[in-house]
Amino acid sequence: MKKLIFIAFILFIAFSCEKEDFGDENETPQETNLKSKTIKTYPYKYGDVYGVPIIEKSWEYDSNGLLTKYIFNQDNGNYFNRDKEEYFYDENNLLIEKKEYSFSSLDYRYTYEYNEKNQCTKMVQHGEYSSQSYIYEYDNNGFLKKETWRFDDSGNIGRIKTFYKNQMGLDTLVIYDYSSSGVSEYRYKYDSKWNILSCDIYKVEDAENHNEYTNSYEYDEKGRIKRKTTVWEYVINFNGYYYSYDYTYMDNDSIESIDIDNAINTDYQLEDWRIEKYEYEYY
């Protein structure tokens, strides 16, 4: 199951072409018969789900299963945000344009270019005063091997991501940030079924090679994610923070909810923090 999610993630990089990190593993860029999906995030208070959703995310799909709209609402009483994204495709169902709005105002427009294999090779973010681009390179097997971010119209490089693959999948992702001259490595471990067991994130320039944080995964008998844990091990202001994500599923294997607990340190007991509840509508 995680192998499929990982493959879907690599496809989604080529599909959306602007992700800064590994994104939301529950996000679905293409889904058969799915008309919409909504995730509502509720806080816990005194051990119980409390009030109305503080975050609501929704995805809409056309009859071909292509993502057409994404809406993000956040309202925690102190801060309100509403974002929207619209997606447009050509006759071959290739994404050619995305529009990104904030409070109904168009912030950015994205355009996409492809090679003869329908792999996304370039994404350009068009802003009001300038543009920036992402360039994608692939190996002979079609695996994404390099992403270059050019942050202005002059083509100055801001960041390079290099992907190294092994027989199980992605082995190491190395990110070089030109603004801070910093290098980060994402190191992956797999089990015999190609499920990702963990991802460790390191700052390479750190002389002691400290692990900044680790994502670890557990699976049920069907190969579905049962629990994900994140531990911030060497990050200023977050050192020792510990999060767990417990998954429940519907009869059709769709995610029903994710219960999120946290603690200020791994020595402390996890406490209820938030829960994400999923809703689906099908054609």
UniProtKB/TrEMBL annotation:
User: What are the boundaries of the signal sequence?
Assistant: 1-19
Q: Does the keyword Signal apply?
A: yes
UniProt keywords (A-Z) are:
Signal
Instruction: Tell me the protein's name.
Output: YD repeat-containing protein
Source taxonomy lineage? Bacteria, Pseudomonadati, Bacteroidota, Bacteroidia, Marinilabiliales
